[in-house]
Fold:
Amino acid sequence: MNTVTRPRVELFYWAAILFSQTLGTALGDWMADSNGLGFEWGALVFAAALAVVAGCYFFTGISRTLLFWAAFILTRPLGATVGDLLDKPLSQGGLDFSRFTASAVLAAFIVVCLLLLPQRAGQHPGEAHPR
Structure:
């Protein structure tokens, strides 16, 4: 965020957010509905793609910026397919949870991840390293 300091850069940032949200949700719906994969397989496709991005992060020298945006974009269709899996009716391949229950399940998953996965403070690349 420290590099978003000019109106042109901020416009690009918000356009990227808008397009990734909209197109990512549409892609998730398309994979699950129109493509015939269903919600479970659609979610697995996007989860596998995120796993590939994570593998690239840990085992390659691919640009961290490119990997960030790839992960950022892939989380949108994953969220759409998982959300649909939780709240769509059984007849449409969902689990038929209410929106409240689906939201509670996702919130509990996030809290568990925060508790189980170690968090550590990062350092901005432009900052001097402490001695």
